[in-house]
Amino acid sequence: MPDFPLTRRSAARALLVAGAAAALPAGFPAAVEAVAQVAPTRAPTSVLRVATFPDLDRAAIAAAPRWRALHPDVELKLLSMQYADHHLSMTTALATGSGLPDVMAIDLRYIGKFAGSGGFVDLNQAPFNAAAHADDYVRFAMAQGVGPNGAQIAIPADIGPGTLIYRKDLLDKAGVSEAEITRDWASYLAAGERIRKTTGAYLMADAADLRDIALRQGLQDGEGLYFDAEGRVLVESARFRHAFELGRAARRAGLDARAISWTNDWAAGFKQGRIATQMMGAWLVGQLRNWIAPQTAGLWRSAPLPGGVQAAYGGSFYAIPKKATNKTAAWDFVRLMTADAQVQLESLKVLDSFPAMRAVLRDPVMDEPIAFLGGQRARQLWRETASHIPAIPVNRFDVLATTVIRDEFERVISKGKAIAEALADARYLIERRARHR
Which residue of 30, 92, 276, 380 has the lowest C-beta tally within 10 Å? Predict the structure, then answer.
């Protein structure tokens, strides 16, 4: 997957931070975002420990009163760390088998890696029987939570339908229509040249964003992004060559601001009107509105990805480690966060996270105008996109492959390395490093 926000700003500063170091199990780093202890209404008979990260922790905090009403005897402890720290800690905990929570939140980027660890219960098995609830969720998201041998190791809480967010004022000034930036990649790049010449704004933040989305073009159900069903590396395919060529063309034409996602320069580009479009998950709208560029309200619109690409960009999941000490309560919590329509709707309001639950996608809230997008009813588009995203399996080495491809692409656009050579080297590096893990 593309690199997700390693510096994603947390809006959960109102968490109750009390006894953070003492509350942490072994293996957690000292740098803790916050610890929220949700007090039961009477003396607890058990404790449920949930490890999470910003901003997903806000959804759990919002659901805490409902949890307390349903489970007055179970004390809920939310252990929240910054995105990178959380996933690093959970990687260590899984490797050592110690310091594991009862419930673990996982970002889509890490699902494949964690699924391959063998450290989670198969939620399809009794007493969980997740298979009986599979139709409750968007199909592609449930497939992302499937590990080796068909085990359902995680349940989706929210999803990221891919979309093209664009500045309508900049396009209007350049005389560019939405159809021109969505028709196909050639039209998108040509429109970018007009936008750059007329307004001075860049078409995109980083050519790598174009590469990442183009890598997903044409994928069908069951096809892996980097690996096939037998684990063979796919990076020398025509799909990868085309994606690299598009990214290189954008860089050579001067259409990208060379601003890496989630850096200060990237955020400043949005605030200052220097970036005309951004391909990312629909949740970016909430990030723009809440902290990246709130002053640009009304200037943005959402459109389909260029060339008809249907892709997922991000998403959050919950899983239960095999060594969890309170599995019954853990499953109740997972179901609360992923299968309770009111909790999903509250998460939408609190986080702007797009629900994974199909019933919620039929709620009238999906038809409401979004003021930040100039009154556009964009959730209708995102819902339609979600219904067409292919069910792509994850692989334990997806994170490794993402890193290798990112580095080789950088050598192509910055050092002039030949694409065929870069992809051949990428295949070799992925295969070699995978053998030693």
Answer: 30
Question: pLDDT, tens digit, for every residue of 29-62?
Answer: 333 334 445 555 566 689 999 999 998 999 999 9
Name the pTM for this structure.
Answer: 0.87
The candidate with the shortest Cα–Cα distance to 81, out of 140, 8, 135, is 8
Instruction: Give the side-chain half-sphere CA count within 13 A for 126.
Output: 0
Question: SS3 breakdown of the chain: % helix, strand, coil, rounded to 5?
Answer: 50, 15, 35
Do residues 282 and 160 touch, judged by C-beta distance below 8 A? yes
What's the fold here for domain 20-159+315-360? D-Maltodextrin-Binding Protein; domain 2 (3.40.190)
Low-confidence spans in the chain with pLDDT less than 50: 1-36
| Fold matches, 20-159+315-360 and 161-313+388-435 | yes
Burial of 173 by CB count in 10 Å (0-12 exposed, 13-18 middle, 19+ buried)?
A: middle
Which amino acid appears at position 398 of this protein? D
Angle at 392 between CA 323 and CA 279, to 5 degrees: 110
β-pairing, 155-167 vs 74-80, is unpaired
Query: Which helix (H) or strand (E) is 162 found in, with range?
Result: strand 155-167
**Rounded Cα gap, residues 313 and 108, in angstroms:** 9
